[in-house]
Amino acid sequence: MNERIHNLLQYVLNKQHQQFRQNLELDVADEFSAKELSDGNRITTRFERVLAVEKAVILPGERIVCLRTVRKIPEIFTEDEWAELKKDHYLHELGRVCNISSDYETTIQLGLEARRAEAQEVLLKCQANDDQEGQEFLQNVIRTINAIEAWVDSYIEEAKKLELPEVVGILERVPRYGARTFHEALQFFRILHFALWCSGNYHNTVGRFDQYMYPYLKSDLEAGRLDEDSAFELLEEFFISFSKDSDLYPGMQQGDNGQSLVLGGVDSDGNNVYNLLSEMCLKASLELKLIDPKINLRVDKSTPLAVYQLGTQLTKQGLGFPQYSNDDVVIPGLIAKGYALEDARNYVVAACWEFIIPKVGMDIPNIGALSYAKVVDRCLHRNLSESKDFSEFMATINQEIAAEVETMIAVFKNLYMEPSPIQSILMEGCIPQARDISKGSKYNNFGLHGTGIATAADSLAVIKKYVYETKTITSAQLIAAVDDNFEGHEQLQAELKYNQNKMGNDDDYVDEIACNLMTMFADALENKITEKGGIYRGGTGSAMYYIRHIQEIGASPDGRKKGEPLAANYSPGLNTRVNGPVSIIKSFSKPDLKRVINGGPLTLELHDTVFRNEEAIQKVALLVKSFMDMGGHQLQLNSVNRETLLDAQQNPDQYRNLIVRVWGWSGYFVELDREYQDHIIQRLELAI
């Protein structure tokens, strides 16, 4: 890392750039309501107002510019309007377009002037056809482009004042016209990404960065405009830019911002496309040690061990990434769900891990979650005493999963989403069809997570063994112990909690139950259609629901007491005795993961001493490769040390840059709420 990048990195890590933030209150909702503006005009006017008051700030030594100074994006509706809207509509999260993968590539190639010309041409057709809705949409697209260009002009003036001719030259080229160089392309992306956040869109993913940016790098290297060192310097500065505004990005916790990029994988013809830029990204992240951008690595059976080893070096730093996705499972799984082959091969991950398609996917991959543990709890109390055998009891589990799915999807009707002219510019087909992206795209599928799979499977194994096979516990005794939170039943709790039929020990007795649960979930979603004509996809992730869902149940038959958390994502139960990481990957690769292909990684916590030398690094890399070869779909490894985390809770000022993986994202440990910190501390540390 050279001195310029080091200084810029420290400037951002020390939050010196935040001195330029403005405490403005842009209250526009009352004005918009009084004028009875349409939703699209409200969005566009808000965007214009925000960019008009953004100050042009260029940090010391910057060559890739843009810094957010407006802290808060205002609402477009009054509280009364929101309340009225919610009476008849379902709102997902903030009611905005989010968590999709934009087509940065096309606009970076063409430039905004070409996109404006395209919009103007289609506008003439809409005028000829008296298409009022199409006209308004295209006029808002043009206004959006005008606002971006005017805002960039303020940066040109600032760069001139600071006598930065390189910055001036680049900004006079992009974003008006297509990028010609790697530097121009990186700056163009930064402008587009910045504009998305300023429009109110969020969880704006980066997509297949090493694919759409590589041609610019390759051209510069071949022409001698850059060598690998100078290109790497630009890449590191670009990576730093993701941390400049991340404190303003909404999420469940600081760090949950969706700034996720994907490396490697195959092209539309199935050829492996891991390239020089892929490797440079891994090395830049390794050197910078920042939580953004989060890196996801696509692999398959042909991926060399050296790639896994480089990824493991990143894991060693405690970054919580790369997260691995297995093309050999994901692509066939997506095709089975109706995705075209070329689109399935082009998949990326959303903000956390969900599989989505760039440019053409308007999926909502995290619209809700099934609680396996709650299903077991309900059937335990309602059906256990009446079920003659375990098979009959499992039939009630199946019925309850189906009923829970029906209950959930009944809510997802009449979905409302704010229009997004800027995101529409960056999605295939929207301008030619004069259609805002909020109305849908080629893929309009909804994804449901599944939480507590290990808790549910372990609990059902207890019921199978003790109630139906050995008959050493009656259904009434088990229910009483659970309802008493095992108080007065401590000996029974110890037996149930520490018996060896636990998911994660390569034990078919319990693993087959988990397989059946996921099959039931997938079956329950078959032939279910979203209101936009898409399908429902079940997954193995948990998102924040692993925290929420424990509030819906008491103790569970596996010995877990009330209030004790579920595992995050697709993992063994917390405090479960397991034989080690190899037994875990064997257990968690057994289900047919192609059927629950919404995503959700097996998550393993490895003690930081595991990464002590190169031989150990290779062992971890082989572990990752083994999971993929066994048919695993996603894997996430974390390097943790419980003693360090406990000390960080007591002395946060000494650990400001301590990074942890939370669920599908990484964050700074001391910035997390206590319940998330405590959960991370409780997770099982494994050795190899």
Structure characteristics:
single chain; 688 residues; alpha/beta; 3 domains; 6-stranded mixed sheet; 3-stranded parallel sheet; 28 helices; 15 strands; 48% helix; globular
Any idea how many domains?
A: 3
Rounded mean pLDDT is: 93
Number of helices: 28
Let me know the number of strands. 15
**What would you call the structural class?**
alpha/beta
Largest sheet: 6 strands, mixed
**Major sheet: arrangement of strands:** 2-3-4-12-11-15
Low-confidence stretches: none
Ends apart, CA distance between termini: 32 Å
Q: Specify the oligomeric state.
A: single chain
Estimate the global geometry from the Cα principal axes: globular
Radius of gyration: 26 Å
Give your account of this protein's structure:
- The chain has 688 residues and is of the alpha/beta class.
- The protein folds into three domains: 1-204, no CATH class; 250-353 and 601-688, no CATH class; 364-600, no CATH class.
- Helix content is 48%, strand content 9%.
- It contains 28 helices and 15 strands.
- The strands form five sheets. The protein has a six-stranded mixed sheet with strand order 2-3-4-12-11-15. Strands 7-9-10 form a three-stranded parallel sheet.
- Helix 13 (276-288) links the parallel strand 2 and strand 3 (294-299).
- Helix 1 packs parallel to helix 12, helix 6 runs antiparallel to helix 7 and helix 13 (276-288) runs parallel beside helix 14.
- It starts with a helix and ends with a strand.
- The model has no long low-confidence stretch (mean pLDDT 93).
